[in-house]
Structure formats: C-alpha cells, structure tokens
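Reopening this one. Same input as before:
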Amino acid sequence: MGIVIYPAGLMNLLRHIQDEYKNPEIYIMENGMDEIDNGTKTLAEATNDYGRKEFIKSHILIMGKAIRLHNVRLKGYFIWSLMDNFEWERGYKMRFGLYYVDFNDNLKRHMRSSGKWLSEFLDSKESLHKCYFEGHREKGYAPKLFDTEYLDPDNWRLSYASDI
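Same output, byte for byte:
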C-alpha cells in the first residue's frame, strides 16, 4: 500500500468547476505534499525532498495544460506550505514546508531542495517537461512515493516512510 499522486485528478477537477460553474476564476488556496518525520532524519535527508519537488512540478505542469488546452481561468496557486508547522492531527511529525524547520535547534530554517527548485523555476523562463508522475502515468501505473509502512503508536492510522 502506498500514497498515490494523481495530478490528472486536478485537471479533472478544474474542468468540472469550469463546466459546472460557468467558467469562474479559480484560485487554488492550498496544495501540498506531506512527509513523515519521526525524528530520525539527518538534516541532509530532511532537506532532500525530491518527491515534493516532483509533486509541485507535476501540478504546475497540469495547471498549465488546463489553462492552455481548455481555457480554464486559473488565477492563483498557493503551495502548502512555506515552512513546516504544527498539524492538528499529527503535531510536528508531518512536514509540508518548502523550508525545513529544526524544532530541536532554536527553530532554524533550512531551504529544502523543492524550495530551491521552485525559486529557480519562478526566476527563469524555463518550461516544464515531463515529470516523474507523468512518465509513470503514461506507462500505465501510478508511482508510489512511500514503500515502508509503519504503525505510529500515537495514531491508529498507518504511516509511510519515503523511499526517494
């Protein structure tokens, strides 16, 4: 069992909103990917978040297609979140940030690889090409980002550890 990322679902949702609600302006207020941090990662491991970079890249790519191919009136996209924060259900174990916050070292902030990529992408004229998720979808299966399953004693739900 693993977490599946399906950016085409965003395309379907944008098209549904366009058709069902007479083509309104759309703002995506919160979109992001979490990862488990049970306190065992080194700083290098915590800031190398390839999966999040590919998540963001794939969603930007699919939003561009929705705008170009279907004239979806998407006016804003906000990534969740700038920095790691407290999540109500999981506390500080779930990390969403483009910046890693070291809760054990005076809240020092470290830019993750996804934040660095996004900053460079936004400063450039680079166009997006196929990303990790799109390549797998064309092969007929969805990629898994997490292969290791473990049970968190503080929560009845299963958790996943990244293999990327």
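So the earlier flakiness isn't reproducible anymore. For the record, Residues 8-162 form a domain with the TIM Barrel fold (CATH 3.20.20.80).
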